[in-house]
Structures are given as C-alpha cells and as structure tokens.
Amino acid sequence: MYTKVAKKGGVGFNNSMFKIKNGLLAPARIVKSPNYDDRGDEDDISLIVIHNISLPPNEFGGKGIEQLFTNTLDKTEHPFYDEIHELRVSSHLLIRRDGEVVQFVPFHKRAWHAGVSQYLGRDVCNDFSIGIEMEGTDFEPFEEIQYKTLNDVIFALLKDYSTLNSSAITGHENIAPERKTDPGPYFNWDKLSLMLKAKLPARCEK
Ligand SMILES: [Zn+2]
Fold first, then answer.
1. What ranges do the domains of the chain cover?
2. What's the chain's Rg over C-alpha atoms?
3. N or C: where does the chain have the smaller number of CB atoms within 10 Å of the terminal CB?
4. CA distances from 57 to 90, 175, 190 (A)
C-alpha cells in the first residue's frame, strides 16, 4: 500500500508548515490593510498571482511596503514615495527576503493587488485571485528561502481552498502585460514548477 497523498496532482499538500484559519495564515505576522473589499463570490478563489515589490525601489528590509499597504507612507522620506503615497493598494501576503510572511488581507476578502487585468478572458483578477508579493525586484534573483516559503504557503492554500489549482498560478506581468513587469525575469518559474509539479506560469490567453 502506498501512503495517501493529497488529491490534486499527487503533491504532498499536508507537508506545509502553514495552517489557514478564518482566512488567515499561521504562522504569519498580521499587518491589517484597509485596502480591500468584499469578493463578489467568496467561494470563487481560483487563481494565485505572484508579484514583486521593494520600497524604496531596489532596497530591502525597510518598512516602506507595509506603510504603502496601510496608507502610512511618508511622502517626504523618498522622492518615489511622493509619486505613490496616495495609491490604495494591498496584497494578501508578502514574503520578505528572509522568508518572513506578512499577511495584510484575509484570503476571503478582495485585496487590491492586480488592477486592470485579465486571466483566460476574465477581467478584474482581484475578484477571484490571491496576491502574493515577493520582496524583490526585476533586476536580481530572489532568495532560496523565499521560494521554500512560497512553496509552503501555496501548499497550505491548495489544501484549504479546493477551488485553487497548482496549475492556476501566474505572474502579474502575465495578467497585465501592457502595464506590469513583475515578478520579472529573475523569478524562477522553473523552480516553482518543479516544486508544485505544474507548468508555470499559467498561460493567460484564452
Ligand atoms: Zn504586481
């Protein structure tokens, strides 16, 4: 007899170090963002969107990302903050360079991470997706611990949300190709594909 594995694709979802309860991941540091609203249908969570972000641009470890997502960015601190401090944006999760996970919005709520976007002919990806920011840039590799953590987080999500699928994971640049370039050329999709036994990023054309 073989050991029973999770039903989707034989990937061992039970191995995740994370658990989800009431739309919140544990262990994760919770930083509440006001930048969310209700999903049209809480039972329709069917896409995972990977992003990258760094604030100030190309600097890691500071408070800028959390300040942006909580509308507390000080526009005098950096010239770029003057441009973006009025944005009202968020994501569900941020995975920092050291692997720490920060959650801003519960998964059953609609975080404002994707903007104008389309996946397989369907607009407004925020309605039906979970947004995960990787602390990083388009110009340098991500950390190994970030991939390991991302993998574990995705395992937990796939286990908890039966409407998600390991093949329906893509990049912001794929759902908004005219506007966005993240997670960028240094995000290693092959590595994620291998870990999840799926061909990623998911194709976004109809
Ligand atoms: Zn993005």
1. 13-196
2. 16
3. N
4. 17, 22, 26
Among 133, 135, 143, 173, the one annotated catalytic: 133
Question: What DSSP string describes 32-91?
Answer: --S-EEE-S-TT---EEEEEEE-SSTT--SSSHHHHHHTT---TTS-HHHHHHTT-----
Q: Check if 143 is active-site.
A: no
CA–CA gap between residue 187 and residue 136 (Å, rounded): 9
What spacing in Å lies between the alpha carbon of 185 and ligand 1's midpoint? Answer: 13
Between the CA of 6 and the centroid of ligand 1 the distance, in Å, is: 30
CA of 134 to the centre of ligand 1 (A): 9
CATH classification code of 13-196:
3.40.80.10
Residue 204: its pLDDT value, please? 86
Please name the residue that has the structure tokens 């003057």.
82
Q: What separation in Å is there between the alpha carbon of 51 and the centre of ligand 1?
A: 4
First to last CA, the chain: 41
Per-10-residue mean pLDDT for the chain, 206 residues long? 45 78 98 97 97 98 98 97 97 98 98 97 97 98 98 97 97 97 98 96 86
- Spatial distance between the Cα atoms of 56 and 65, rounded to a whole number of angstroms: 8
